[in-house]
Amino acid sequence: MSCKKGIDKYMFCTNSNYYETLVQYVKGKSSDVKKDEKCNDVKTSMTFFNNVQAKDICEEFKFLYKSFSTYPDGKTVKNDPFSYYDCYFLN
User: Fold this and answer.
1) What is the pTM of this model?
2) Helix, coil or strand: residue 23
3) Buried (b) or exposed (e) across 27-55, using 16+ Cβ within 10 A?
């Protein structure tokens, strides 16, 4: 799904409890997050807060993205699992 222009970019804030729960879900699955080896080649000269590495950001983002289709019941949604709010939250 691509983002749709003209929709309020901050409407996802009305679902902030859901997104906070999803972020906590990802943090609780840290061993699963680290399994994504496609982030090993991410390199940057940027310095992030608390010395977080770009590889870690990549892994968490990819796991969070995948979690939209399986959270909270662990089943994969066959139809498009994303809402426009999800898209703006990820951005």
Assistant:
1) 0.59
2) helix
3) eebeeebeebeebeeeeeeeeeeeeeeeb
